[in-house]
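Trying the structure run again after the queue cleared.
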Amino acid sequence: MLRLTPGALTSQRLEERPANLPSHLYVHGGQRPTSFSAVVFLPEGPVLRQVQTGGDSLLDVARQRQLPVWLRISGLRDRRRIEAFLATLDVPAELLPPLLDVPQRPRVDSFGEAVLVVLHRLGFARDPAHLVSEQVGLLLLPDLLVTLEEASSGEPFTDLTDWLISRAGAVEHRDLDDLLHFLIDDLLDDLFPMLESIANRLDDLEAAALRQPKPTVLGRTTQFRSGVRTIRSQIWPLRHQIRSLLRQRQQLLGPEALGGFQEMADLVELLFDQCESLRAQCDAITQAYAASIGNRMNQVMKTLTILASVFAPLTFIAGIYGMNFDVMPELHWRYGYLAVLLLMGTIAVLQVSWLWRRGWFEDWTTPRR
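Done. Tokens:
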């Protein structure tokens, strides 16, 4: 029985998708065709099979005998077909809008004898600076777990499915609440290698910002910062919602599942802290880039100052002897031209040597070993 508060199941759609569409959604025009499969936990072991919406004898037997069933739906194109099929399994229609409306805000909610989870599976596009996302909805009911994937590129949750099928007869691993925890954990664990890859690329950008600051460095840093902000926005709501779920003491969640969700709460905190660390690293790269550009600009200004200070006395001498006065002692001197050139050269050499000893010619923008 569902215990709903007003607005609890309102569809909380995002203004835009948290990242780009994956390639297999582009192929199908934004919506992948719908397919159904199920893992039925029979007494002799789990069985995986494709399901027909017109009625499936194995599912009927499982429902009559109250056997646990993991129903997997891939592709959300045929919404009416999905709704009709879930209605035959006694899934309340009120729970479907948050699962079928795309894109949704991440959420973990508990309603009496139902647990609803909406997450986004994030990944890299061809360019690691850009992310792609696909919505994954999970619904836990008594003896039924439903997963709805917007754009699964292959077999849904392949590793977990193979693990279940290989452990035939293992009764202790048939609890759907534990399976729900494993599915969420699988989605969150995928974020760690992504964040590690972003951190490695930010290290390279930081080195480039110090050695060869170019506008492309700042542009790539901005792209990675946007990706980190996207991941952070998907993690932020889970911090409070998982803690709230643990406080509600949901009847569908056994002791092992509750312990798993407690570990998941710690995992979310770790992911959030890592996102904050990467955001700080992006800020550090921006500051390093600005400092490097400032140093190069100072080097340019210093070079121009050296040239101006060297040529200032030479310009002064040339200005004096360029005056049009009839009476000038050196005007008709045979060696006057050579003497003035030697004087100007001597002044220039003395000034350059004096500036050299004071360290003005040292380039502070070159990388140090």
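The mean pLDDT is 83. Worth checking whether this holds up in the mutant runs.
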